[in-house]
Design a protein that fits this description.
There is one protein chain. By secondary structure, the protein is α/β, with parallel strands linked by helices. It is 62% helix and 11% strand. The chain contains 20 helices and 14 strands. The strands form four sheets. Strands 8-11-12-5-13-14 form a six-stranded mixed beta sheet, sandwiched between helices. The protein has a four-stranded antiparallel beta sheet with strand order 4-3-6-7, covered by helices on one side. A two-stranded antiparallel ribbon has the order 1-2.
Amino acid sequence: MLVLLVLLMLLEVGSGLMIPTMTAELINRGLEGTEPAVIVRGGCLMAAASLLAGLGALAGSYLTALLAAELGRYLRNRLYDHVLRFSEADMEHFGTGSMVTRTLSDVNVVQQALVMLALMVLPVPVVCLLGIGLSFYLDATMGWLMLGVTLVLLPLMVVVLRLAAPCFVKLQLFLDRMNTVVREVVTGVRVIRAFNKEEHEVQRMETVFRDYRGVAVKANRLFAGMESTALLLVNVMLVVILYVCGVRTGAGAMEMGDLAAVSQYAVLVLFFLMMAQMVMVMMPRAGVCLRRIREVLEYEPSIQDGEDAPGAPMCPALPLSAASPAPSASGVSGVSGAARLSGEALPVMRFRSVCFRYPDAEEDTLHDIDFSCRRGETTAIIGSTGCGKSTIAKLMLRFLDVTSGAVELFGTDVRRLRQADLRARVACVPQRSWLFSGTIAENLSYGLPGASPQRMREALRMAQAQFVEELPEGLDARVAQGGTNFSGGQRQRLAIARALMKPADLFLFDDSFSALDVRTDAALRRALREGLRDAAVLVIAQRISSIAHADRIVVLEDGRMVGCGRHAELMESCAVYREIARSQMRREEDCSHG
């Protein structure tokens, strides 16, 4: 596409620059009294050259727009694919606001720069060389004058570029900050209203906007000064050229047609130089945007696939690269017979003396965590807020890597496996029940692409989300971004149904029952016990009623295991668990009395 674009540009510029030469010849012959047929033939040639130049310009503009669109698509796909590999720490390194700016605004700037470079800068060298060369052909003095004009304007472009670059670096940083602040205000508008902080947020936004405006005004003043100076120089140069041409024509050193041709060359060369100057002042911004895009693309994710993946075995009979298990006939989700047999001896997921510390922390968040999740059993984790429950879930999905110890899937350290293969074996309901804009059916299809409506209804019934059947559109009911058009409990049940759609060996529920009432919670637990009897289940919860039925309950306090067993055993042997149970019972009694 670039080669074709250059050829079209040469066609446009070459044809356009031939017109002044033809005009000069027609004027000179007309003054000599040439026959009308010669004039007509010359006019036809000029019309043909004009048509070729117009077609070249039209095709070049179309190809440039297509090339810019392809470049934007390519960059955004690269950014999106690369960011999907980032861990939480990697995302925090850049920030969500900055990533949005880099993916949208920065790519837009690069696209615009490409269009203007192709249309206004790429032809400049050809126009200057051909224009100066043809001026030398018509008159050597005028050729030297055109060369001098070009060399005077080029240093001005370099000076402006050096002055503009720092402004654009600051401009993009302030744009990141604007994006972050606006996202915070829009997302937290209810909190702002609840605390009567409208004035405070208005002042905070005004500060950010004022900073951006200051740098933008400075950059625009620089451009305005450059544009005025360039326009003045161009007009002065044009006056000088016309004056010199007039003097030489009057002295008989040039013909009248040559005067017209040289003046047109001067106009074309100076026009393209001035347009190039206006475009080149935007190049520092495009350069900054490209560097910011490159920073993301060259950033190595902190969590990488294992060196021996794919192909690292999960268990003796079932290699990791095998396809995801098929649904069992007895429930919404299940595993293949081979997986069931091979997983008899090995736990699905095992924590071996796991310790974890966040990069910016001074001490470990988790200390010597050791437990297993086995097929056909429900394992639960409970503890106070901040004790590390959700960190365990992130380690299971390898959103984080252990500091010491190991997390194993069917006896293989997850760091040796491909992340995609690991996550294909785990169905997760995250702490925040996020739904995507679209329909309920499209959201459920995230768990199992191409699933039938019957399969979706089975998952919804197991998740106690029968309210979907009462909606006029049913599975085709619209879902707003984040699922904000549903209540908290409805969002949780839809998120649970999405996870149940997925054939998996381990089902992870990270505090996924908190918005459910006690009756719905109990019905959901009964349905899960029946439907997921062939898989391992891990429930992270704060409510003891949600996990009292579990085969194994892990009690955490300050990142340490202080108990592990069944509900009755822990009530006798674990003081922390007993205190959690008593405090919840007191709250329930207080609520009932209230």
